[in-house]
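Predict structure. Chain length: 298.
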Amino acid sequence: MITRGTLTYAVDETVSLMAFEEIMQDMSVLFALYEVRAASGRRTVGAQIGSLGELTTKTEGAQADEDSITQQWKKDYTFVAKGKRVPLSREIIEDNEWGVLEELGMQLGMAVNHTMETDGAALFNDAFGGGSYASGDGSAICGTHTNADGGNSQSNRGTSALSYANLVTVRQNMRGFTNSRSLRIRVNPDELLVPVELENDAFEIVKSMTRPDNANSVANMFSSGMTMYVWEALTDATNWFVMDSRMRRQNLRWWQRVDPEFYGDGNLHAGTRTIGTYTRYINGALDWRWIYGQEVAG
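Prediction complete.
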């Protein structure tokens, strides 16, 4: 028998079950791209040190040459709390309106997903502006970058529309990235991220066995070595990004302070019960060398 003493638990469990099922069923590009890490405290700190130079020849019996490293940057990432609550009338609970409660659970799960997706994609949507999300050096994630200990200025931003030839050019540009000592680093651009408006073009470029821009059945070098992501949360219809999957996992971070929680708080005297959700997290990018963005006008 359902009583007032057990019904509140059943209500909360029904909502929570449906909410978590919705979250699990709607796993998206967000967690395919971000390296998710648990965190504690009110903030987390990111920092980067400079690079070492090449090894030098050592004379027999002598010590190796000494080198030093300069700290490139330090950045604080402060966690943001997110929540939502919905009041229910006592009559809905008394009348056992489980259809409403299940729908409410799904809606709460969808709200959590949508919020996290929006925040995750916001980093890419702001990649060329840097107003809300910036690389560790303080510049826009896709822009012009300099090193704290000198070295050449580098850019990971372009303005070219998505095409086979332009994808080839971006890969070549990324392979020219250097570290803080101006030494070329190993970059393997193996991922393409596009909005839904570019899905068809991206699919032809990445998945075709032959080059889509050549009628002579020339082999397509991207057909077996490039992963394509299509993200509905990207707000610009023409911008696109190329990434190195290994370096992306090292630099694109999602710090989860509190996992999504679903709770209930009842006041039978007032005739209401509130169901809600709460979570706390922050996302950001450390270095910039994992990505190359194309900000296409129009």
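Summary: Confidence is low (pLDDT under 50) at residues 1-11.
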